[in-house]
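Hi V.,

You were right to ask for the full record rather than a summary. Here it is.
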Amino acid sequence: MKSLRRRGSRAALLYLGEDALSGYGEAADREVWALRSEGVRVEYRGWSGGREYELPAGVNPHSRDPLPSERARRGAPTIAHVFPERLPEIRAATRRGPLIAHTVWETDLLPTHWPAILNLADRVIVPTEWNRAAFVASGVTKPVVVVPYVVCDPVPGDRGVPLALPDDVVAFYTISRWDERKKPAAVIEAFLEAFTADDPVALVVKTTPYVQYPPAGPWGGQSVLVGTTMLEVARIVRNYPRPARVRVEIDDWTPERLAGLHTRGDCYVSLAHSEGWGLGAFDAAAYGNPIVMTGWGGQLEFLDADTAFLVDHDLASVQYWPPHVYPTGQHWAVPRLEHAVEHMRKVAADLGAARRRAAPLKAKVLHEYSPARVVATLLDVVPELGLVTDASPSSVRDQPRPAPAAPGERLPHSGSGPAHVAGEGLIPRIAHFVFGLREEPEPFHLVHYLAIKSCLEVIKPEEVYLHCHHLPYGQYWDVTKARVIVQHVEPARAVSEFAYADRIVDRYKYAHHADFVRLDVLTEHGGLYADIDTLFVAPVPDELWHQQFVIGREADVVDPMTGESRPALSNALLMSVPGSRFVEAWRAEIGDALDGSWVAHSCFLAYDLASRLPADVHVEPQRAFHAFEPTAAGLSRLLEGNVADLDGVTSIHLAAHLWWEDERRDFSRVHAGMISEHWIRHAPVTYAIAARRFLPTDDLAVTARRRARRERG
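Predicted structure:
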């Protein structure tokens, strides 16, 4: 994210949040990041009431603020994203402009003391319409408006490697504090009812080490573990003679570990009595994971029965401590355990079908709850922030935000052929490849043939274009050329004129020409672009064709300028409507970003643009297009190992420039000269097995040798 500090100016907004690793803290962090990414300068501070924290009561530096020197202007509005009990002290401590309370509740009525406190604010923000109705019904008279939470960036994190779960195990998981409302105990019970030790499943429970209000129970009552989560888990598991694998994690986790759990996890489960929003399920949706969850509460703002596995329930009066928080008259849901068991067994029996069911939900949350859209909603429904908009370089409310098409729905268009109209949100079903930008072109390789053949059979485009400067040749081109439309392209002038300091990069600069060509092609025609060393293994999910621009996350990349690892997006597979805002912005800036490295104008610039234009791009998780990292370990899994589980993988990018030549052994022992039809048919490795079905009926190399012998004889 670019620095937003400007000399001689001050932040337009004070944002107070709970400086804690909690749902409140995470939601506040995301909203502040979203505001800043949209050009709104924010002073971000933590609030301490003097009891739960060591800091003195009042406004304190926020431990997770990357811009701690920001200061709000005098009279700026304050958003207090905190428990309402803090509001009287905050009102007294800030004494500046409008006070906007930002909070959430989980049942159908508020705690009896909340309405009077909330009415001290000028306006109240809640994340769901379900919440808004409860707040108004409970007696909040100040305006109550709805601003949803900001979706997470579905990065792979540590990929769940520390969990050491076998690849063939279906991993259910849940993330919550151990208390009666969240009820992780019910998730464990349902899991153990559904499965036994014979089933290839596991349950990962990320929770707290202590129980909020320990239940009384005779078993273990004299143990020193009374009050701990581990004792409560043991009480549950001992009722099952052959329990399935349950792994309980009670340590504090880094964001990388949590992201890794979502990446490795296959199905998120929550049987909470009630949620105001449900961040765990929300984040799981962004990762494309199926969700089994109670069908009542604020989570229905983004969940529905078509895309999630909603559990039937009964409403009951809340029986919970303390009584002043949960007074008589409140209700919550009691999920039916047997229905949860049924859903979990269904997911385990056909994980692929469950993921397909969840795919439209992923597209929905990444689009509707993107940072730009949430900020636009915030500025629309909170007029006290009007000056914030005026202080920004341009109002995010002025940016067009087309509604996404429903999954499977084709948008209307006039004329014949694909819909080539920018902004319609329908990507043309045509495919583009680039080849032949070397001064000394090589023969069209079997890998290149397999890229186009797999695209034709899996993606089923209406047309395939090969954009080249030097015409391909060779036996695999002879059997390919009838299936493609050849388009002549010129090398990029910016690349031709660039003085490369690195001789190795200069040797491969034809790839930089291709970086420019692909953006030009997508600007003019739209469609799907893929590198010529791609293998398609599953169809592109239908909802992606209804986006404006699609790109995939890749593993973090080391910045050659700083030596530090940075997040990146890969340009090896792109999808766009013609002239999308994102592709035009990228093309406008790529020349200035070209610095002679592999990554600045492609991986890093794409990521920076996605941060600046989040409403104009859909980012797929790394597994979709780039499951195998361009590292020695990743290429070993692809070219020398055997990874059987390709669920969730749409295409495989080979990163061929790292291992293509015989003398290049620093990434892999495999090289292009080894990859023949015989190798593809018989090598027990990931790429060969996945590519096998796309081979020609006859071995072209063998046929060519026989023909040559006949001609000589």
